[in-house]
Amino acid sequence: MLSLATVTIEILFSPVSKVLAQNVTLPPPESGSFSTAFDFIPDGRLVIFTGTEVRIQTQQGSSNFDLIGNLPPEFRGGSDPAFVVTGLGGNFFILGTGAGGSKFPNQPFNGSIFLLPRTGGQAKSVALIPFHFAADLRRPQELFINRGEASFSRSAVERLDLKTKKVRTVIDNIPGASSGLVVDRHGNIYTGIGLDPNGARTGEIRRFSRRDINRAIQTQVPLNFDSDGVFVAKVLSAGNLVFDQQGDLWVGGGDIAGGGQQGFIAEIDPQTGIVDTS
């Protein structure tokens, strides 16, 4: 387990195995926003979302980023950048504005999700899913989003059909705050409990099979986190889930419940749940 506070930022990029390790300074978040979200485009460069602007790295390893697009001007300072997800093939980006930045909890700032073509310009709203936290694509037009509630006591996973703009719940009754979400190469979904208000289950990650997810979509009956999910591991705060090319699962987070240190990452075997401590 590594602490991001004690190593260079290149550690953050290397587990993804999409590009060589990079030591990069990201542009700061927009005033009123809380962070800068990032993803990779197919050629290995970074795409970043500052809360208002979307920029692409000029070349791998560079801290220079070219502007390609932005949210509508009224959202300036009203975004808490939850994620930027690169469309399969790199033709578009999905932007999650989180819970609203300095304009929380007013809608549409809390929960607006936008689509920005690779050609750039002004992003267009495609859905409103309050308190969303993380997202990943399973198919070119199928996005899964982990979203929570203001109480941090319950969360769920929604499926957004980018073609029809319909939103349906596919995993429900997650007993705690929202966490990371990732789809593996087989179409299974991993998500977890970002914060258990009772303090016992923070960081718990479960796997939901492609078959069960498809059944939930067809029947419109959501899966239950406890009874339908397969326990994988209990690691950190189950945030920033990502697979590397070897199939290992990397988990970000920290001591959310205890108010302690943040900015850690851990590598786990998704089949055994064993945490690599080397």
What does it look like?
This protein is mainly beta. Helices cover 6% and strands 39% of the residues. The longest helix has 10 residues, at 210-219.
Main sheet attributes: strand count, strand direction, barrel closure: 5 strands, antiparallel
Q: Helical amount among residues, as a percent range?
A: under 10%
Order of helices and strands: EHEEEEEEEEEEEEEEEEHEHEEEEE
Distance between the termini: 8 Å
Indicate the proportion of strand residues: 35-45%
List low-confidence stretches: 1-19
Number of helices: 3
The shape is globular
What is the radius of gyration computed over CA atoms, rounded to a whole number of angstroms? 17 Å
Helix- and strand-based class?
Answer: mainly beta
Please state the average pLDDT score.
88
| Number of DSSP E strands | 23
Outline of this structure?
This protein is mostly beta strands and about 280 residues long. It has helices at about 10-15, 210-220, 225-230, and strands spanning about 1-5, 35-40, 45-50, 55, 65-70, 85, 90-95, 110-115, 120, 125-130, 130-140, 140-145, 155-160, 165-175, 180-185, 190, 205-210, 225, 230-235, 240-245, 250-255, 265-270, 275.
